Amino acid sequence: MTHSARPQRTRIKFCGFTRADDIARAVSLGADALGFVMWPASKRGITPDQLAALTESVPAFVTRVGLFVDQPAELIKACLPYLDVIQFHGDESAAFCTQFDRPWIKALRMRDGIDLHQAAAQYARAQALLLDAYRPGTPGGTGEVFDWSRIPADLAKPVILAGGLTPDNIAAAVVQVTPYAVDVSGGIESTPGSKDAEKMAMFVNQLALADAR
């Protein structure tokens, strides 16, 4: 599948959960995937114990995604009972990513000169490529938008679009990029790690309107 083959419905991943009430609201709104940041330097970072508690209430057919940034294999393995998919957000090699017996996503920051075709070949066993804005020293969650026209239409991997998405720009993003899925964290929050119910609902509604075009 190429990302130019528009899916019937753009999948939604809400990321950076720290509160059970926010998870319940996201599920009720129809989120396809919930992201949990396991990187301790993040303002949305949680521990494996918190991950275990937060994922208890996630129902079947909602995907639990764990986000890691160049972290030890032992930590990732400790989190596996509570995760369906792993998201690698650092400089992990393809060999590292394939060792955990879980589907995985490779996040790529859109730095100048990046070759997405080469990256798709390098991470051939990834289930998708997540494309995020680039800021030096910041592996994700920048709240910044990159130039969507830099995404080639013939990329050989499904695209998950991230980076500065909000209820105000999600419709334009979906129409221009036609991604397989979108990933949002700060754009649906009141403060880092605390989701805003109204923003989540607006995001879902605007995405649905774009899909209907």
Key phrases:
single chain, 213 residues, alpha/beta, TIM Barrel, eight-stranded parallel barrel, two-stranded antiparallel sheet, 10 strands, disordered N terminus
Description:
The longest helix has 15 residues, at 197-211. Mean pLDDT is 92; it is low at 1-5. The protein contains 7 helices and 10 strands. Helix 3 (73-79) links the parallel strand 3 and strand 4 (85-88). It starts with 10 loop residues before the first strand and ends with a helix. The chain is an alpha/beta fold and 213 residues long. The chain has an 8-stranded parallel β-barrel with strand order 1-2-3-4-5-6-7-8. The protein has a single domain, classed as Alpha-Beta Barrel (TIM Barrel).
In short:
The chain is α/β, with parallel strands linked by helices and 213 residues long. The chain is built from seven helices and ten strands.
- Give me the CATH superfamily: Aldolase class I
Beta content? 15-25%
Major sheet characteristics = 8 strands, parallel, barrel
Instruction: Tally the helices.
Output: 7
- Strand-and-helix sequence, N→C? EHEHEHEHEHEEHEEEH
Q: CATH topology, what is it called?
A: TIM Barrel
CA radius of gyration is 16 Å
Average pLDDT metric: 92
The end-to-end distance, rounded to whole angstroms, is 21 Å
**Overall number of strands:** 10
What is the 3D shape?
A: globular
Helix content: 25-40%
What are the SSEs and their pairings?
Elements lengths: L10 E5 L4 H9 L4 E5 L10 H8 L7 E6 L4 H7 L5 E4 L5 H4 L6 E6 L6 H7 L5 E5 L26 E3 L8 H8 L3 E4 L4 E3 L2 E2 L1 H15 L2
Parallel strand pairs: 1-2, 1-8, 2-3, 3-4, 4-5, 5-6, 6-7, 7-8
Antiparallel strand pairs: 9-10
